[in-house]
Amino acid sequence: MAKDPLAEAGLHFDALNKLRVLEPEVGQKTTELKEECKDFVDKMGQFQKIVGGLIELVDELAKEAETEKMKAIGARNLLKSVAKQREAQQQQLQALLAEKMMQLERYRIEYEALSKVEAEQNEFIDQFILQK
C-alpha cells in the first residue's frame, strides 16, 4: 500500500473532504474535549450561581443573627440598668425610712416632754384651785 504523500506532510481530508492539518482522530478528540470543556464551563456557571445564592443566604442569616445579638445585648443592658435603678431606689427608700424613724423618735421625745409639761401644768392648776 502506498503512503499518502499528504498524510506524510501532516495534511488530511475530513468527512466533508476538507483539507485539515490535524489527523481525523486528533480532530475528533479535540472536538470532544471542546464539548467537555463547554459542559464543564456550563456546570461551573451553575455551581457559581448555586454558591452565590448560598453566600447571599448565609449573609442574610449573618445579618439577622447580628441583629438578634444586638437586641439581646440591648435587652441585657436594659435589664442591668433597671436592676441598678431598683437598687438605687431601694437605697433612697431606706434612707428616707431612716430619716422618718429619726423624725418619729424626735416627735416621741417631744410628745413625752409636752406630756410631762401638761401633767405639771395640770398639777399646778389643781393645786391652784385647791388653794382657793
From TrEMBL:
Ranges that cross the membrane: none
Highest taxon of source: Eukaryota
Alphabetical UniProt keywords: Cell projection, Coiled coil
GO (cellular component) term, any one: neuron projection
InterPro entries xrefs: FT20
Entry's localization field: Cell projection, Cilium
Signal sequence interval, chain numbering: none
Coiled coil ranges: 79-117
UniProt-listed GO biological process terms: cilium assembly; protein localization to cilium
One Pfam family matching this protein: IFT20
Major site of localization recorded for this protein: other
Name under which the protein is recorded: Intraflagellar transport 20 homolog (Chlamydomonas)
